[in-house]
């Protein structure tokens, strides 16, 4: 593993163990087994490294999924239930990442550069969710991809917040599917 990869892995470990605000450049360099100067050389700044490490950790989470939701028809309630069952089942082992996600989002309200980065990360997530659930892309479907992706993004963010604050009453994927069906069936024109 080269210095760049070692720094990314070290930064991921530090973020998950210490969080964004408490991770120092020295922590990362020590975790990676490289010099402090390597951070600037490979990433320009500690913040840039942490942002890339965060995105890598999020991608690792979704890459680790078993993709059982892809066996159901795109946009079906079965796919919805299977996806959220897979995601919600992963929450306990990803608790540090969930906490980090919320921390970085809140910290972005006080740190303009981080806020800009997190806004981009959320937008990326919206569009990926629209594509995964409904096969929508902004190039082909325009604002509809944004709207649908925003719905799923809000649902994900709310689930993360609820998991971190109230695991005792945390919903299951079946609860979510049942609620969605109930609401959809009662919408005018549905």
Automatic annotation (TrEMBL):
Domain HTH tetR-type: 1-61
UniProt DNA-binding region: 24-43
InterPro entries xref list: Homeodomain-like_sf, HTH-type_TetR-like_transc_reg, HTH_TetR, Tet_transcr_reg_TetR-rel_C_sf
Gene3D superfamilies in alphabetical order: Tetracycline Repressor, domain 2
SUPFAM superfamilies registered for this protein in UniProt: Homeodomain-like, Tetracyclin repressor-like, C-terminal domain
Molecular function GO terms recorded: DNA-binding transcription factor activity; transcription cis-regulatory region binding
Keyword DNA-binding: yes
Keywords: DNA-binding
PROSITE patterns named among the record's database cross-references: HTH_TETR_2
Superkingdom of the source species: Bacteria
Stated name of the protein: TetR/AcrR family transcriptional regulator
Species of the source: Actinospica durhamensis
């Amino acid at each position: 593993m080269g210095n760049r990869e070692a720094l990314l892995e070290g930064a991921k470990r530090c973020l998950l163990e210490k969080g964004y605000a408490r991770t120092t450049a020295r922590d990362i360099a020590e975790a990676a087994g490289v010099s402090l100067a390597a951070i600037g050389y490979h990433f320009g700044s500690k913040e840039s490294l942490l942002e890339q490490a965060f995105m890598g950790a999020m991608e690792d989470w979704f890459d680790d999924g078993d993709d059982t939701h892809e066996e159901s028809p795109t946009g079906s309630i079965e796919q919805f239930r299977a996806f959220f069952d897979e995601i919600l089942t992963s929450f306990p082992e990803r608790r540090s990442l969930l906490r980090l996600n919320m921390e970085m989002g809140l910290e972005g309200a006080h740190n303009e550069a981080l806020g800009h980065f997190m806004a981009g990360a959320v937008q990326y997530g919206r569009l990926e969710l629209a594509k995964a659930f409904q096969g929508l892309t902004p190039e082909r479907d325009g604002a509809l991809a944004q709207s649908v992706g925003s719905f799923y993004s809000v649902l994900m963010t709310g689930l993360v917040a609820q998991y971190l604050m109230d695991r005792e009453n945390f919903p299951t994927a079946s609860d979510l599917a049942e609620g969605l069906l109930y609401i959809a069936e009662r919408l005018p024109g549905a």
